[in-house]
Structures
1.
Amino acid sequence: MTTFDWPELYFVRHGQTDWNAEGRYQGSKDIPLNDIGRSQADKNGALLRDLLKRDGRRVDEFDWYVSPLGRARETMDRIRSCFTGTLPEVTVDPRLTEISFGIHEGHLHTELASGAMAIAGERDAAFWYFRPPAGESYDDLALRIADFGSGLKRRAVVVSHGGVLRVLRRLIEDFPPESAVNWFPPQDSVVHFADGRATVYPAGASWDD
């Protein structure tokens, strides 16, 4: 899907917010983590630490990037608190901001499912190009994420959003568009991208051997 080779990525979606729990379109709105989301971020930090140890990776082999939205930045802070020693600086990159749902942000998924915007699990391939009023399509978001990826110089740790993770699977794995827009990105996992494929590691399991 892109004309360059992606480096190895460890990706974490931010933890749960109240809007996530309520089933509201969140997008570019800056909604904070709730207590469940903070716990998820802490567990994902411990998991990332264990995965890097398992894979023989040092933290200084990676550049660290985060979306500017508060829920992602708090998730990154909590992840980093699980590590000891000096960590590389974090780059806040606006290209990692979640897809904008425009005028639909704040509405319940079920409110819009019958007409204005199809809900995940019921979308067709054309939804990749669907742009809500004052918002973005997944294809728009893919342009941002491809621009971000083209500038990566080495391995990276990325903390961002569910829409971004959907797009990464499309760009890196050549995930079909209808699969990408209907996949439910986890908030309790670390996703490892390497050699053109993604592996999802759920938090709470042991991955250190």
Note: The chain is about 35% helix and 15% strand.
2.
Amino acid sequence: MASLLEKVSTLISANLHALVDAALKANSLAVIDQYIRDVENNLDSLTDAAATVGGQVKTLKRKYDEYMKAAADLDRNIDIFLKEGKEELAAAAQAKYNSTMRLAETYKEQYERQQNEYQKLLDAKLKLEAKLTTIKQERDEAQALLELAQSKEITVKAIRSLDDLAGSGDADVARIAESIRARLDKASAAGEMLATRLDKQMDEVLERREIDAQLAARKAKLGLP
């Protein structure tokens, strides 16, 4: 279980901005896609582990409650035996009470330990799910940026070809080239508008993160959960 939590901790602490930057520089989303696969695989493992440990917690708690109930019954019987002068029965009941309480304490310790482990798994699962949601959103934005960059590269190549046509000396060919160039300029402008919107969205996300961090700090200062 410790190794699973260590893997999850590594994924949670991953720098998503660095992953996106690496993907953009390599002109490929492969590094982000691999991270997403790793997160999804570990989420499946976390879910299974949490279900297993959660079941153990319920079993241990039930056993603890059963032994505590048995101990309470024995405690009452001891008093009854003493009142009736049945010393031997009281002594036997006391011995059984002692062993029952020891077992109850053992189950209590195991229950509390597993409960703590269960909570760690749930917390890790929640954090990893949030990380997965964020990186999927950033992947979509990175893909849009890559497509925009590829479109601009095609536009540049086309304009260079048109420059060759425009200088051919044929007036009709030059007019056609100029018309196509105007259409390409329009498409390029539209792409720049898209890029501006994406930049704005990314700024809003970053600003929201900063606000969330500030609110978290305030809550911690006020002692709020």
Note: The chain has a mean pLDDT of 80.
